[in-house]
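Lecture 7 notes: from sequence to structure.

We start with a single chain of 89 residues. Read the sequence below before looking at the structure.
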Amino acid sequence: MANIKSAKKRAKQTVVRNARNTSQRSMLRTAVKRVLKAIEASDHAGAESAFKTAVPILDRYAARGLIHRNKAARHKSRINARIKALKVA
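Now the structure, written as tokens:
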């Protein structure tokens, strides 16, 4: 355990940030899973509405560094392609 005051503070900050990151990452994954579930159910309208809520979440956390910006772009691109394929089929 840390003995120096600044090290104790950093340890506390790490706990808080870790909890926040875990919560936000979970929210992000849930948003993506909602879209994928709608795609699996062949629900085009539901998939589009879930995608519209997932995109800002992906962008927000990519900007904050929770996930890499390329990962966010990859998710958006692949999900959007699957939604468009639903419309055609």
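The radius of gyration is 18 Å. Keep this in mind for problem set 3.
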